[in-house]
Design a protein that fits this description.
The chain is α+β, with helices and mostly antiparallel strands. The protein is built from 3 helices and 11 strands, in the order αββββββαβββββα. Helix content is about 20%, strand content about 35%. It is globular, with a radius of gyration of 14 Å.
Amino acid sequence: MFTIPPPENWHSIISKRLFRVFLNNLPEERVWGDHTGYRIGGGWLEPDASVSWPDQRLDAKYFLRSPMIAVEILSPGEDIDRKLTLYFDEGALEVWVLSPRQKTMAVYLRRDTDVIRVVVNDNYSSAATGVSVSLPQLFA
């Protein structure tokens, strides 16, 4: 039997905090926690938190294509580059990548045909949603 260990507690705490930030600022039907499935690139991705598009398509079980915003909290050995490619190939506007060990966040943003990376050390306000997040509060 092969098992992948579940996320460590700090990972889940940060995920819950981000979910609450989104939920306090956006319509409930657009805010999703971990284990929400998106059919992307012939498979599935489950961001740690996400904001769906207002008109996000879905099938009988899962969302189709990328969310508007996907949040990934880094775990040891995670292949974030592959996930970024999949998210942006399938229409994401922003992908937030948090590093709890470094207490930083990198935000990847779609700008026309380019994706730019913004390093966040303190606070970030999403142009796509208007949601602001404080890293000191997330990582407290």
